[in-house]
Amino acid sequence: xxxxxxxxxxxxxxxxxxxxxxxxxxxxxxxxxxxxxxxxxxxxxxxxxxxxxxxxxxxxxxxxxxxxxxxxxxxxxxxxxxxxxxxxxxxxxxxxxxxxxxxxxxxxxxxxxxxxxxxxxxxxxxxxxxxxxxxxxxxxxxxxxxxxxxxxxxxxxxxxxxxxxxxxxxxxxxxxxxxxxxxxxxxxxxxxxxxxxxxxxxxxxxxxxxxxxxxxxxxxxxxxxxxxxxxxxxxxxxxxxxxxxxxxxxxxxxxxxxxxxxxxxxxxxxxxxxxxxxxxxxxxxxxxxxxxxxxxxxxxxxxxxxxxxxxxxxxxxxxxxxxxxxxxxxxxxxxxxxxxxxxxxxxxxxxxxxxxxxxxxxxxxxxxxxxxxxxxxxxxxxxxxxxxxxxxxxxxxxxxxxxxxxxxxxxxxxxxxxxxxxxxxxxxxxxxxxxxxxxxxxxxxxxxxxxxxxxxxxxxxxxxxxxxxxxxxxxxxxxxxxxxxxxxxxxxxxxxxxxxxxxxxxxxxxxxxxxxxxxxxxxxxxxxxxxxxxxxxxxxxxxxxxxxxxxxxxxxxxxxxxxxxxxxxxxxxxxxxxxxxxxxxxxxxxxxxxxxxxxxxxxxxxxxxxxxxxxxxxxxxxxxxxxxxxxxxxxxxxx
Length: 639
Fold this sequence. Notes:
With 639 residues, the protein is α+β, with helices and mostly antiparallel strands. It is 26% helix and 33% strand.
């Protein structure tokens, strides 16, 4: 059956990604959205869009929308209902095509314990594991606690000793229950010096199966991938063939259809590999495979769903060059990668160098705690791996976006680090390298950009002036004092004093001279002490985002007269982000030690601990289990 109308049961960048390929095939696209997503790009990109009453997990409502609007097929993207066997079955029962593998394959691989058993039967090596805490000593520490259902790093905890096992299991169970509706977890040997390498597979309904090579996804935080690439710098032709054969063996046992991924853990020293799981869906990192093979995976999924057979076999697959993807997150790398919320006052991806942007946001987008904090995927291609890495770093630097904290600077630091460029990308990369998440500029350079920002503000004030509007900016006929602008860059304040000279130059209080060559609503071209700065600028409320050659700086424009804050509670511990209180592990009056967990918050589908910064006694508890809290809200008062 030819697919004429497709509903995408997902949101954000993956919905936009699917719409793009479907439109290229002449397929009409239907989007669904919640109140939080009503102004997002994919809603406008679709040919029809329908609002959900509550969430993207409401399978019944999604099917009703599809049937009412004569939809031929449903593509689930990833996450949400993409690995829900019941949903896949119900789509088919309703007479529509399911763009994905069979419900049977989803069910078997959705349970990691069952998947592991099948892998063993297929002759694929697996790690020692167990189903309960009693198996810990037999497995040996360190141990990884893993959710039996789902993925994406949720419901996973590394345990290095028996004293942490009980709490880690309980925490993983809560997260698994909240994320997948299934609290079951199991234990598995944790390989500390390892790589995470996965193999992309494609199968049709006629039994034809191919693999499209490997992707390396070793650079992770909180067991979630940050950087992915194809091919892996570790894998040679012989290893690629062995891993590909193992993936095909398992896929054959499953009679696998559509796109899927077989994931492996690889020992850094021995190159020995073990089965981890099968993701029965499109992966977030699928673009790097597309870049090096030239195969559009979404189009292949749609053709397979239409009943077409693969028109190529394994001998036809080849790989060219190198592709790297980074995930742009709303998070603070300098604060344990905690997710953040806020408004993206500007989002202008660079045109040069040309890279691929799979994006779910735009200028003005509000980032809420309702969804995963991933904002976009940025993908480069190069003839060599080094070229792809440098190209991607430069594209991130040349882009103008901000208004809230992202991990952009951290990603740039990874891509430019010598260890990364040499291919030393084991799963402990982030922990070992301890790279900065700050814009890589000198103090003098930052001060020059603060001066440029001040002159832009001066131009804005002149533009908005209601008197003497025919006068040049900064003109005066007397000896007047310096004008003053106060700016803050996180914890650093800048007081910029300037005045205009009769030769049209500006003079700062430190005797540095500046010439403004061009001023626009969103741009300034200025020379400061011989250095030419041409910067895009976005300004909203009291936030000024100025672009530099290393990324963007977000200044807060401070008021001329300070208002003292009297709302701070002495000894108060504040919420590091908006979220829901899922556990209160202390009582009023109880004694705690430094590092003890006091409160557990859930934000953006992950758990985050609020720990005691020092030993003391709980003076007051200001929140309760189930309560929604705001960023900075005081949770506990510690005496």
